[in-house]
Structure formats: structure tokens, C-alpha cells
Amino acid sequence: MMDIVEDLWAAYASTLGFAMVNAFFALATYATLSAGILSFGAVTFGAAGGFLGAQMVLHSTVPLPLIFLAAGLAGAVVSLLVAMIFLRLESHWMALASLALVLITRVVVLNTPDLTGGVNGLSIPQPLPLEWLAGLLVVTVGAFYALDRSWYGIAARAVREDTSVATCMGIDPRRIQLIAMGISGFVGGLGGVMMALMLQFVSPDTFFIHVAFTMIAGVVLGGSHHWFGPVLGAAVFTALPTVMQAFIPEMQDIGNGAALLLIMIFLPRGLLDPRAMRLRRARK
Amino acid sequence: MTLLALADVTKSFGGVTAVGGLSFTVRPRHVVGLMGPNGAGKTTIINLISGLLHPDAGTIRLGGQPVTRARPHEIAGGGLARTYQNVRLISGMTALEQVIVGSYLRRGTSLLASILHLPAARAAARATRADAMDLLARVGMADRADTLAETLSYGEQRRIEIARALASQPKLLLLDEPTAGMNAAESAEIGRLVHALRDDGLTVLMVEHNMRLVADFCEHVVVMNFGRKIAEGPPAACIADPAVQEAYFGKQRDAQRHRA
Amino acid sequence: MELFFAQLLNGCALGALYGLFGIGFGLVFATMGILNAAQGAYASWAAIVAMYAIDLLGLPFPVAVLVGILAGGMVAVLVDQIGFEPLRRFGPGLHQAAMLGALITSIAFWIMLESAAGFATGQQSLAFPPGSYPAAVFHAGPMMLPAMQAITLAGLVVVGGGMHWINTRTRFGAAMRAVGWDPVAAGLGGVNARVIVIATAFLSGGISGFAGILSGISTANVSASLGQGLMLKGFAAVVVGGYDDIRGTAIAGLALGVLEVFCAQYLSSSWRDGFAYALLLGFLMLRPRGLFGSAGFTRA
Ligand SMILES: Nc1ncnc2c1ncn2[C@@H]1O[C@H](COP(=O)(O)OP(=O)(O)OP(=O)(O)O)[C@@H](O)[C@H]1O
Ligand SMILES: [Mg+2]
């Protein structure tokens, strides 16, 4: 019996690990989305955290917790710089601009080989203890729960649903969105270093457009109106390819796409939708 | 002594002059009616005062402070709250939550305290909640506190919106057609609520088409047409004013004359 | 000097591809508010179909190009009707929830279409058979103009001009904008919203497909990932030019192409994409509404 459990664990430990790493990225995206910003910036913040973390592991003896902190802060600094430019834009342009940011990130990463290893990337000879990953994720999710209940969470919901109504109630949307970007940056930076350590490798491709798209898909799939939605979505989105691989190996991507499409059409507000839950409760 | 003063306010959209050189003042603890046929520019005035739009020319003062270029949240911070012609409640929130958002300006705790759920923040949240319940009761919606607001009837949503606007404890309340879609009894209910609020010290500027209601509940009326003021003064005199009659009923009379 | 002119021409031809693709991409974004991640796949599929039309069916070049454009348009309509239509019940096209939903379904289609394109090309980089497309070179003094570059530039002028005309002068153009802003209202106003939406999608897919075919020929590379490169630069052209501005997109595309070629030639080839994207970011900061865009607007 123990053997079976151990085998299963061996087979799925890395899937579980990646699901948790992706949860960080999904939460980073959710942080901005829940304040009304559709942004792919978490990829860039992840790159900041990932490469900084990789360099710290390679060239210093700083303990892991401090590396995590540094990576988070690096992401937050980048995000706040980005926010100063982006928050002036109207929402459609902001989405486009953040996509451009992802493209620029790749060019910068490719062209600063001293910092990032350039095309070849960096190998990191240090594994990521899963209990660290799990522990930090729990703390982060807890923080999102607390944020959701706080003044910030309430104001952010108003800004997201109707910005002009929110401002007329005295809420400064820029302030709310600046906080959202800061949170997104910190969590994205954390996700970046986790990803780097999980892969034991970082390269320009680690943080590129596919990551941006999968994480936003994860958030919407899990439920972009609920603090736990991103975690759920990231899990489904990480497990899906593994499952598809098992059943229809050669059609894996087509299966993924079709699954995403079906979910979006039939559950447009995601798996966890507080509004639907309330409606259901009201009907009872 | 004025709470709100508009001087020569002008706003155009492309070629359309929605408001052209409008001036009027609102004195504290008064209920002022803003009237005018469709497209007269009433909603534009409300948007200009609340800062969602900025005038092309002219100045707006709130409590003596110029707010012509201020952003909406700054103006709200200066003691202004409003409702919308087509109710704009926040999707996914219960009636009670709508009112709680409205009290954002009086949250009384720091962000960190609120996130960490410190005792002080919890006490403040309880107080906010209790106040919000009182407001819902005041607009007669206490029994709907936990209902998802978007499932309520139009009239009920309007009342929640008024409660939400009151939650910030404003000095000046702007109501854009608060009785649209309500029957006579419900409308009179709103009128009485407005009177009660005035007696508590609030100033109200309301857009209203219903002449009965204006005559019964407003102390002062501004009537506009095509972005300009065509009459101002006590309700009865304004409504009797030939220019106002012409603006409101002129077209109908023309039509009747044509048919005859 | 000769090199300079040759490179200028190369840059313009490359930029014309970006501009063309961008016009297709910007069309759906401006009218329907959809940020379409699958747009690149339209280009890939159009190129693949056009290539097989020549290779397997032996169709003459112009017919094959038409078939490819048709394929691009049809894929776009398919994506629109399966992926976007169900989301339109959210209401006006520019609502955040609808926009997000459409982005996700377009990502789903991107994944599927690109993967299917991989099967269609046997996961390889193929090419149009040599001699199947015009290869003449026109001489004009010191300048040489290969036929494909001439076709590409002409294509941008014709498509750009045509779209500008449709947009500003025809009832169809007005209907496209009306449907984009509010399909419900447009439906009530006598415009058959669904037909307009389908036609818009078809146009957008056809134009981006045309760019894909031309790109497949000029780079001698027809593969599943053909569209991705076009997509990134075409997207940049849309942002720099202003997404609702065809003239701006065309000019921005040309500028990006020239910039890219000259940067690679005279500065640094590894940073050449960097310059394009830095320009993009600069524009977003200084002229967020694009080249010819008006200053900010407020929605109350
Ligand atoms: N955002 C806008 N863009 C362009 N034109 C506008 C805008 N807002 C208002 N207008 C125009 O300005 C004029 C005044 O509109 P406004 O909404 O202020 O009228 P109103 O008096 O509130 O009318 P109603 O009784 O129908 O609510 C109208 O002609 C309207 O079409
Ligand atoms: Mg109005």
C-alpha cells in the first residue's frame, strides 16, 4: 500500500509542484484583474524575481527565505515602475501595453547575458523543497483572503465593476490600482523565483507569452471573482496537459484548447463564482 | 451663504453644446429641483458637478472651494454624493454590501489594520455595518439586506442607490431622476425621504420631471432647455412660467395645432 | 548608397507585412473590442492552404493566393462564431467581462489552430515551390525591386486604401462600428448585426491571411509558427498607429519594418526587436492613442 502511494507521489510530485508555482502567477494576475486591470505584466515581474533569485543562488550564500523576499521585492519594484507608466492608460491600451511589456522583457533578457545568461539561460544547482513552496503558497493565499475581506478588497471590487461609480464614492482608482500592481509584482516575483528553482533552469523562454496566456486562462477558468479561483484554475491548467497526455498524447494541445474553449463558453465566470453561489443560495 | 455655485459653466460634446453658460447656486439645507425636457443637459450638469466631466469654461465651487478641475474622488471627499439616472449598482454585491462600499470615505481604519483584521478594524467594520443597516431601514429596504442587489426591482435598486449615496454622510446629495419608473405612492415616499434628509441638515439637488413632486417637495427650482437656464425661482412660479410651459408642452401644442 | 536603398526597400516590404497583418488585427479590436490571440494562426493557415493549393492542386499563383485568403477568412469566421458569439450575450462588445472571455477563447483557438497547423505541415518548415510565384526583378536606375516586394507594397496600399474607404465612406463601415459599440442597439436600428459581425471577421481573417501568404513566400518559411512573428510586430504596428486608425497602422508597420532592417544593418541585430518594442512603449507613454489619435477622452 505504502508503495503505491510512493509511486503516485513520485509520478505526480512535479505536477503538484508546477501547479503551485503556476498558482503564484495566477494569483499575481488575479491581483491586477480584481482591480480592473487586464495585465500580462506578471510575466515580467516573474522574470525580475526569477533571474535575481537564480543569480543569488549561484553567486551568494544567502538563505532561501531571504532570496524569496528579494525576488518578491524585485518584482514589486518593477511593477511599481511599470504602474507609473501604465496606470495613465485607458483599460484597453493597458492590456496592449502589458503585452508589449512581455515582448520587451524577452528582448532585454536575451541581450543582457551577464545578468540572465542570454539565450543559454542559467542552470541552478539547487532544488526547491516542496514544503517551502507549499508553505509560502498557503501564506499567500491567506493574504489574498484577508485582502478580499479588507477595505482594499471592497474598493477594488467597486473599481473593477464600475470605475466611474467607484470614484464618485470617493475611491481613488489609481491608488487602488497602484496597490494592486504592487501586490501583483511581489507575488509575480515570488512565482518567478519558484519557477526558476522548480525547473532548476531559467531562460528567456521561461517567462514569455505562453506563460502570460496560460496564467490568464488559469485565472478565468478558476474564477476571476474569487480569491481561491486562481489557485484552482492553475491546478486544473497544470493537470490538464498531464491528463491529456495520458489519454490522447498526440492531440494534447488540441485537447487543451478544446477544454479551455468549452469551459469558457459554458462557465464564462469560472469554476468558482461568488455571484452564482449567491444566486443559488437566494433561490433556495 | 451658498454650498454649491456654478458660474457660466459650458460643456460641449463635439458640435453639441450640452450646457451653455449656466449659472445657479444652491443654498445649504435646501432641496433644489433641476428641471428641463429630454436632452436639456441635466445629467451633464450632474456629471460636471461630480467631476466625471470637466467644463470647457466656467467655474464650479463646492463649499467655497473651486472644484472645476478636481477629480471625482476628491469632490466626493469634499462632501458630495450622487445617484444615477440609470441605476448603477455594483454587480455581484448584496444590498448591504452596496451601502458598505458607499461608506468607503468613512472607513476609519488603516489599510494594514483592515487586512490584518485587527480588533480596531473589526470594531470599525461592525460600526459600518450597523450604520449601513440603519440606512437600508431608512429607505425601507432592511429586509432585503442580504439579497443580491441586481435581482431586486428597479424601484428597490433606486432606493439602495440612495442609501449608498447617503453612506458617505455627504453635505450635498445629487439625485438624477430618483423617481423614474416609480408610481405616485413610491414617488411621494422618495419626496418625504428627501424632506426628512433636509431636516437632518442635508442639501439636495435633484433632477425631476414630475411637476407635482417638484411643486410639493422643492424649495427652489432651476429650469433649463438646450443647455441654458430658462427660469429659476419658487416651484409654482417656475412651472407657471410661459417659457417653461413652452419648453415642456410647446411641441405637443404645435402638434395639436397641426392636427386641428 | 545602393545598399541603403536596397535596405530601405527591404524594410518597407517587411513593414508592409506588419502593416497588413496589423490592419486585420486592428479591425476586430477596434470594432468588436476583441484582443484576438488567434489572429496569427489565420496567417499561418492561409499560407499553408495557399502553399498546398499550388503544391498539391497545381493551381496558378493568383488563384492559390485567393484560396489562401478565403481560408484565412473562413477560419476567422469559425473562430468568431464558435468562440466569440456565445460571449456576446454579455452585452456591448467593449465590456471588460466580454473582452476577457473573448481573449481566453481566442487563446484556446490559438493553441488548437497552431497545433493543427503543426500536423498540416508535418511539424516542419516548408516553402512555396520555387518558380511558383513571380520572381522577376524590376530595375529602376540603381534600384532593384523584386516582384514579390512590389506585390507586398501594392497589397498594403490597396488593402489599406480599400479598408479606409470602406470605413469612412460606406454604410458597411458605419455598420461595423455600430455593431462593435453595441450589437443590440445596432440590431434594433435595422442593421443585421450577425451578418456584419461575420463579414468583419471574414475581412479581418482574409487580410491577416494575405499577410501570412506574402510572408510565407518572402521568408521561404511556411510553418505553424509563421503567424506568431507577424502577430507580435503587427500588434506593435496596431498600437503605434492607433488601433482604430488604418492609415496609422499602415504607416507604423512600414516604419517598424524599416527600423528593424536598419537597426540590424547599422546598429545591432540582437537588439533590433528591442528598438521596435521600445518605440512601442514610447508611443504608449507619449501618444497613447496612436500616431494620429486624438488626446484622451472620458466616459462618464
Ligand atoms: N458623453 C456624451 N457624448 C456626446 N454627447 C452627449 C454626451 N452626454 C450627453 N450628450 C448630449 O448632450 C445633451 C444633453 O444630454 P443630457 O444627458 O445632459 O440631457 P438630460 O437633460 O439629462 O436628458 P434626459 O432627460 O433625457 O436624461 C444631449 O443632446 C446629449 O445627446
Ligand atoms: Mg439625464
Specify the helix fraction band of chain C: over 70%
Main beta sheet of chain C: 2 strands, antiparallel
Low-confidence stretches of chain A: none
Instruction: Give the topology string of chain A: H per helix, E per strand.
Output: HHHHHEHHHHEHHHH
Structural class of chain C: mainly alpha
Number of helices of chain C: 11
Any guess at the CATH architecture of chain C? Answer: Orthogonal Bundle
Mean model confidence by pLDDT of chain C: 84
Q: Which strand order do you get reading across the main beta sheet of chain A?
A: 1-2
Strand order of the largest sheet of chain C: 1-2
Task: Estimate the global geometry of chain C from the Cα principal axes.
Answer: globular
**Strand elements of chain C, count:** 2
Structural commentary:
The complex is a heterotrimer of chains A (284), B (260) and C (300). The model of chain A has no long low-confidence stretch (mean pLDDT 88). Chain A has a two-stranded antiparallel sheet with strand order 1-2. Chain A has a domain at 13-208. With 284 residues, chain A is mainly α. Chain A contains 13 helices and two strands, in the order H-H-H-H-H-E-H-H-H-H-E-H-H-H-H. In chain A, helix 1 (2-33) runs parallel beside helix 6 (130-149), helix 1 packs antiparallel against helix 9 (173-199) and helix 1 packs across helix 11 (229-247). Chain B has 260 residues and is α/β, with parallel strands linked by helices. In chain B, a hairpin with a 2-residue loop joins strand 1 and strand 2 (16-26). In chain B, helix 3 crosses helix 5 (119-138) and helix 5 packs across helix 6 (154-166). The longest helix of chain B has 20 residues, at 119-138. In chain B, the strands form two sheets. Chain B has a six-stranded mixed sheet with strand order 6-7-8-3-9-10, with helices on both faces. In chain B, strands 2-1-4-5 form a four-stranded antiparallel sheet, with helices on one face. Chain C has a single domain, classed as Orthogonal Bundle (ABC transporter involved in vitamin B12 uptake, BtuC). Chain C has helices spanning 2-32, 39-55, 61-84, 96-120, 147-169, 171-181, 183-188, 193-218, 226-241, 246-267, 272-286, and strands at residues 137-140, 143-146. In chain C, strands 1-2 form a two-stranded antiparallel ribbon. Mean pLDDT of chain C is 84; it is low at 294-300. The chains are: A mainly alpha (284), B alpha/beta (260), C mainly alpha (300). The structure holds adenosine-5'-triphosphate and magnesium ion (MG). Adenosine-5'-triphosphate binds next to strand 2 and helix 1 of chain B.
